[in-house]
Amino acid sequence: MLFENFLIWFVVVPIIMMAGLACCGNNNMKAVRGVMVTCSSALLLMSIWLVVEFLRLRSAGDTSEMLFMGSWMWYEPLNIHLAVGVDGISVLMLLLTSIIVFAGTFASWKINPLPKNFFLWYSLLSTGVYGFFISIDMFTMFMFYEVALIPMYLLIGVWGTGRKEYSAMKLTLMLMGGSAFLMLGLLGIYWHSAASPENLTWNILEISHNGAIDPSWQTLLFFFTFVGFGVLGAMFPFHTWSPDGHACAPTAVSMLHAGVLMKLGGYGCFRIAIFLLPAAANQLAWIFIILTGISIVYGAFSACVQTDLKYINAYSSVSHCGMVLFALLMLNTTAMTGGILQMLSHGLMTALFFALIGMIYGRTHTRDIRQMGGLMKIMPYLGVCYMIAGFASLGLPGMSGFVAEMTIFFGSFEHADMFHRVFVIAATCSIVITAVYILRVVGKLILGPVQDEHHLQLTDATWWERLSTVTLIVCLVGIGFFPNWLSETISSSFAPIVNALAQAI
Amino acid sequence: MDYSQFGAMIPELIILGLFLVVFVLDVFTKDGSSKKWLTPLTTVLFGLATVAIWLIPSSGEAVFGGMYVDTTACKAIKAILNVGVFLVLLQSAGWVESDEVAIRKGEFYELMLVTLFGMYLMISARHFLLFVIGLETASLPLAAMTAFNKHHYESHEAAIKYILTAVFSSAILLVGLSFVYACSGTGSLYFDDIRAALSDGAMAEPGLLVYALAFVIAGIGFKLSLVPFHLWTADVYQGAPTAVTSYLSVISKGSAAFAFFIIFVQAFGTVYSEAWEWMMYAVIIATITIGNLFALRQKNMKRFMAFSSISQAGYIMLGVMTESALGLTSMMYYIFVYIVSNLGAFAVISAIENKTGKISMDDYDGLHKTNPWLSFAMTLAMFSLAGIPPFAGFFSKFLIFNSVTASNSMALYMLVLVALINTIISLYYYLLVVKAIWIKPGEAKIESFRSSFTERLGLWICVGGIILFGIVPVIYQYCFDAAQQIF
Prior knowledge:
Number of strands of chain B: 2
Structural class of chain B: mainly alpha
Largest sheet of chain B: 2 strands, antiparallel
Number of helices of chain A: 21
Strand order of the largest sheet of chain A: 1-2
Strand order of the largest sheet of chain B: 1-2
Oligomer: heterodimer
Radius of gyration of chain A: 22 Å
Strand content of chain B: under 5%
Strand content of chain A: under 5%
């Protein structure tokens, strides 16, 4: 099983990582770092190889829906498999995860206390994320989804800052609440997945080939699954866990959570809710377009009035992740491609933001922008990085944000009716609001006068901090300059989903 | 009488033989040093009995005119209960050897084996007379076990509460059974006859049916501590010795749940939708919700576990609503996982109580600094009870919900939705324990200690079960194969 399929190693390596960490001494920082750096680099190399190999197979003319497929029986009486397979989107998501796990390892170089336990839970979290992206079996997918949620409780509760106990509990309960709805939706899909009881299946591809699910059930199931994933995608009004959770989480966890975990929501929305329940998606999309439209504008306005750097970013994430779901609900290839680009772009950008905020906070011991200023004079490297992240966030051409948002708005405008137009225009306005809060922070925090004399003694970034940020910046600019191969890979993977939607009308 | 019929009752005979061995050894050895072999001997022999019951094939025979049957499902259920009893024996070893109890330890084992014998009869009974005999055999010795800390006031209070409730609920059950007898009008108490009488609409007294089933549900509901028949649970769990509490919460509850399934599917299966579906619907929702809401504010760990086990009983009862082999499979698997998870938690609680006497959740603050392994085990047990993957509790919850939704009835979907929302409430209070152990600041209130070998062995088995038996589907497969032959 292990040597038949390459994808399974994305779960095996984090497990090896956990086993390695378990063998380290409790305060043996060197050994812990050694294990983390080795394994996260290995994962990064594996993801890069996977992307290259995927592109090679595709250009060699392999047009099957998913590549690197594998399937092993797990719970035989219920036809539950451990089934894996990737298309262009999951390949890129795996790469994003690896980049952020890699950068997060360096961003938490000096984590304290209990470094070993921190990285154990961190690895468990990444196991869940990797497992989710490689699975094509709903049960396995859901299991990995929940595996990724629960370590957050301890990661925030033990290593967080501020009102950490409250935030950890709120985040965990809200996300698990979402997954309760999700579980019901998945059970419903399973029991309607085939015409005869012997053929019931959890495999997403088989369900889509088996033909449409009974339309009278689709509405309900779509509602359950979309809301279930939407909670993790920070859809209004279920987004309230996100600001508190992100503000209190330790740096690497904020990075991984905002960068990757919130993408699980968007990914699940199109992979399960939209793909398997296309008729309901066509009918009900408008409800969720309203909700995500509110997310986009409301998140951006909220970010304008916050003074805590992490809250600003968390609300900006609500806005940007709302954009992801908004794009997916447009149900056409262009907008959905833009949605995936936005996932990648937001993942990298927000990870960079949270890493920088962690580094600034580690020096100034405050995240309140009223108490800081003129950081460009004190720590020019971090200042420049912050500005780059800010520009990516407000969609400056040449950065990833521009590519993503342009694609989304082009795609959304393909809908000619009044309803879509109004919401698209409202969403477009959020770009301006984004500029307001980004430039406000940049002007005040980075460029303004120095507020506190003590800050003048602070030092600039260390080598591990530079490594962490450079990795992310290179990717951000890379997407901005060379978006073509990405959008082609993504849009070709949307073909089955768009076909399913077209047939269901 | 054909005595060869006893040959079909192999599991019962094994337990009875074990009981006699322990009894004779207990009576014919002197008190003091010569009795110190009793605990390891009983534990080892019981372990062997567990393996034997797990491995021997079931005879599949119905004997004594069909009063007793031995099917694969019955045998698998007994094997699962045996695993739980074995774990209770391991974790109670420390308490049993304490000065106060050591002189009476023989009695403790004898009482425990007798209750187990009674539970076996409940499960294999296909006639209400045998069922009631089994139920009484299982309940009455438990009162004596509850009173086992005889110098403690709470233990007596708990025992009185338990015996009064047990007797009262038996009375209600018997009234219910007499109504059933009247209602069916066949002059027979065999499950099959009642089923036949109820199915063809030829009931002698159709108006009695609802009352009959309400009384039966109430009578067995007391044993299962279903809401609203749960009021004794918290006090008894708190007052009883911890070993007995863990026995009550998993073994006694598990056996009653299986008996409930068998009676309601076998004897009353045909009147499911007209008579007892809505009753159980309401009872399950009340059980899960009330158990959860009361657990939220408990500080005493034993009371906490009492309310948590009330709500877990509600999840177990979901399996009854399915009336199918798939439902029984999920139920057996759920109870197995519940046994290892709950006993894992009780192993930690009793280890701490035996060493330090502390039983409040506040005393667990910062436990990870002094007792990292106990903290680890407790965290896993809490995660598993809350249904967090990759631990076994997730799989058992998922599979039981899966079996309930199989009928595609909208009412049952909504039942699952209520149960799922309740898992979030339960997650909150299970996380409170995790929070006390890992997150609460300040110095640990419990000093570092090392528990005895048997306690550690019991705990390791539980931890191994929690980690492995979800990811490796052997137990589920075993239950599935066994559940194909229920009756």
